[in-house]
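User: I've been trying to design a sequence by hand for this structure and keep getting stuck. Would you show me what you'd pick, starting by listing the structure so we're on the same page?

Assistant: Good idea, let's start from the same input. This is the structure you sent:
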């Protein structure tokens, strides 16, 4: 099921742009190899979770790498999203943010490629995490807190009159990511319940600040 979803995603969102490329390598081939490396290198941590690589480098010939120039950013972004989606459907967990890099290998023959994958833990042990905004924009979380508010000085600035200038903060912790209210006027809610101080986030939680709803994803 997970692999079929991956293939549909790449076929639908990348292949149309790809048709003008000169490379003999199709993006779906990269995606299949990437998720295969996740399957092959999965392990079980002390909590019983299935942990898989989250850092991928695709080694291509110089010509094949150049042929992807026009869709480079789209391709890497879609491979990252496909990896997240596959992990969610298979019940896998990442130790940090997902990263995909396309790189040149002088020893690689045209039409051939290799995927190097590894486990890369987020600083502070927070694991992976991102915020999905109402527009669909995804903001990756790292080892630093991100404040949300109406102020342009906030890391995530919201044009919502029901949001305080500095409303809330999403911060890393040893157990993952948490959201904290910063003394806002209207409060901060998670899944419809107002939080008092700080609340640990789990995959799929909906953070509500003012009239804005933001989804937290732990992959």
């Amino acid at each position: 099921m997970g692999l079929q979803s991956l293939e549909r995603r790449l076929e639908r969102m990348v292949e149309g742009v790809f048709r003008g490329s000169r490379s003999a390598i199709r993006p779906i081939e990269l995606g299949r190899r990437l998720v295969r490396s996740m399957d092959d290198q999965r392990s079980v941590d002390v909590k019983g979770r299935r942990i898989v690589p989250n850092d991928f480098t695709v080694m291509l010939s110089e010509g094949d790498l150049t042929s992807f120039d026009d869709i480079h950013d789209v391709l890497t972004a879609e491979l990252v999203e496909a990896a997240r989606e596959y992990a969610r459907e298979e019940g896998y967990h990442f130790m940090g943010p997902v990263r995909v890099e396309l790189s040149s290998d002088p020893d690689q023959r045209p039409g051939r490629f290799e995927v190097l994958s590894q486990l890369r833990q987020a600083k502070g042990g927070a694991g992976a995490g991102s915020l999905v905004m109402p527009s669909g924009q995804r903001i990756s979380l790292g080892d630093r807190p991100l404040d949300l508010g109406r102020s342009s000085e906030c890391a995530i600035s919201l044009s919502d009159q029901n949001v305080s200038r500095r409303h809330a903060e999403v911060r890393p912790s040893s157990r993952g990511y948490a959201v904290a209210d910063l003394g806002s006027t209207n409060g901060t809610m998670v899944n419809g319940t107002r939080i008092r101080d700080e609340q640990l986030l789990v995959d799929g939680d909906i953070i509500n600040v003012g009239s804005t709803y933001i989804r937290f994803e732990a992959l």
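That's my pick for every position. To get oriented when you compare it with your attempt: The CA atoms of residues 35 and 83 lie 7 Å apart. Residues 72-90 form the longest helix (19 residues).
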